[in-house]
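User: Can you predict the 3D structure for this chain?
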Amino acid sequence: MGIFDKAKGLVGKNEDKIQDGIDKAADVADDKLGDKVGSDKIDQAADAAKSAVDKLAD
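Assistant: Here is the predicted structure, written as structure tokens:
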């Protein structure tokens, strides 16, 4: 079992926690940088991260 397989297994077991962490990080980033970066870009980045987690969990 390679390291990638182990990572996939961990992501699969903890997908909900990871998704929640992404949401919390996006909220903090929006509070701190929303005016400078734009809330829409922060939301796009969070959605991309969640999509990557979904792909790993499958």
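The CA atoms of residues 3 and 48 lie 23 Å apart. The chain has a mean pLDDT of 92.
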